[in-house]
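Forum > Structural Biology > Help requests

Title: Can anyone predict the 3D structure of Alkyl transferase?

Hi all, first post here. I have the sequence for Alkyl transferase but no way to get a structure on my laptop. I'd be grateful if someone could post the C-alpha cells.
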Amino acid sequence: MLKSMDGLAEKLFWSSLLYMLKPLFRILSVGPTPNHVAFILDGNRRYAKKRNMAVGNGYRAGFMAVMSMLKYCYVLGVKYMTIYAFSIDNFKRRPEEVQYLMDLMLEKIEGLLHKESVVNQYGVRVHFVGNLKLLTEPVRVAAEKAMQATADNTNSTLLICVAYSSTDEIVHAVESSCQEKWNEIQELNANQPQNVEETKEIRELNQIIKLVDIERHMYMRLAPDPDMLIRTSGETRLSNFLLWQTTSCLLYSPKVLFPEIGLRHLIWAVLHFQRLFPHLEKKKQL
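Reply #1:
Sure, ran it for you. C-alpha cells for Alkyl transferase below:
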C-alpha cells in the first residue's frame, strides 16, 4: 500500500514539474532541437565515494538520473536517447562488482516492464545495444522481453548500450557484412551452369563491401547518428563509445558526476548545441 502511494506521489510530482516546465521547453524548441542525445554515465562510483556510501547506491542514483533525463528529453522533443550503461571493459572489474551490476540491471530492466514505468507512461521503445550474448542469461532474457514488450511504442526510443564497445561493434559489422556477401556469392554461383561467363551481378558482388553494407550490420543501426554526446565528470574522452557515429557530433562535458546531472545541465547543453548548430551542419555537408 505504501509503495503504491509513493509511486502515485512520484507520478504526480513529475506530472506537475513537467507541466510547469513546458513553457521553457517551448522557448528552447524555437531553435534547433537535437534529434538524438547520447550520454556517457561517468561518475557513479565517485559519487558514492564522495558521499561515503556503498558503490551500489551510486549506481542506483545514476539510474534515477537516467530516468530524469529520459523525461526531460521526451518533453523537449528528443526522439532518441542513448546511454552507455555497461562497457565490455567493465567485465574486468572485481567479480562481486560485476555481479552486483548484473543483478541491478536485471532489477531495473524488469521494472521497465511494469505498466506504471516511465517507458510505458511516455510510449518509449527500449532497445538494448551491444554483444548481448556476453550478459548473464537472466539479464539477456529480461532485455529481450523488454524490447519485445515496447516494440510498438513510437513516441521516442531509448537505446541502452550494454556489453558494448565501439570496436566490437565495428568488428561485428565487418564480419557480418563479409558473411552476408559470401552467402550471396555462393547462392548465385550455385544457380549458374558450369563454365558460364561471369554475369555483371556476380562481378558487382565480388567488389569491395560498401559502406552501406557495414552500417546495415551496426548495433546502432536503429537510430540516426547522435547530434550531441554528454559526458559528465568533465571528461572529454569517448572511451570506445560510438566512435563510428560521432564524426559530426557535439561533445558536451559538464563537471558534475552523473548522478548529479539535472535539468539545468541539459538546458545548457541544448543552448550550446543551438549556438553551434550552423557550424555543425556545415561540417556534415563537407
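Strands lie at 36-40, 80-87, 124-129, 156-164, 228-231, 250-252. The CA atoms of residues 123 and 153 lie 5 Å apart.
Shout if anything looks off.
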